[in-house]
Design goal:
Blueprint lengths: L2 H24 L8 H34 L1 H25 L3 H25 L8 H7 L13
């Protein structure tokens, strides 16, 4: 370990001790008898900040990739928006009657089974895009935002 690395670690530890002692004397509810607990809380906060910035960077990167691919994928996004709107209208209409809701769920199960049979026979889905389109236009995954442990 180089001298610079050791110096940076020492400065961080001393800063954490100073911040914890400052918080202990100024912020009600931060009182702790063990200074190591305070240091652990502060390092936990910095760890959380690192995870949060990594998560935020991934979201920004994914957004930029989506904007770059927008000209090639706009038709798929509009089609999804159209189907989603129809789905919301159908769910709203079916929510007034338990019988209609049961019929909607049964119909969806039948469509999924039919899709599975067509995929096994012909090799393509009727309720899902091909893998090439999913890979090109829907590559971003929803990632959970990191949480700060208490």
């Amino acid at each position: 370990m180089s001298f610079t690395t050791r110096s940076i670690i020492l400065v961080l530890i001393l800063s954490a001790v100073m911040i914890s002692s400052l918080l202990e004397s100024r912020v009600e509810g931060f009182k702790t008898e063990d200074p190591l607990k305070a240091i652990t809380k502060i390092f936990g906060f910095f760890t959380f900040l690192g995870k949060w910035f990594k998560w935020f960077g991934e979201i920004i990167g994914c957004s930029i990739e989506t904007l770059i691919g927008l000209p090639n994928c706009i038709m798929f996004y509009l089609f999804d928006l159209f189907l989603g709107t129809i789905g919301v209208i159908i769910k709203l209409f079916c929510s007034f009657s338990p019988h209609l809701e049961k019929a909607r769920l049964t119909t969806w199960k039948i469509i999924k089974k039919l899709d599975g049979m067509i995929y096994n026979g012909a090799g393509f889905h009727i309720i899902q895009y091909p893998k090439s389109i999913i890979k090109k236009c829907y590559k971003c995954k929803n990632k959970k935002m990191p949480t700060l442990k208490k």
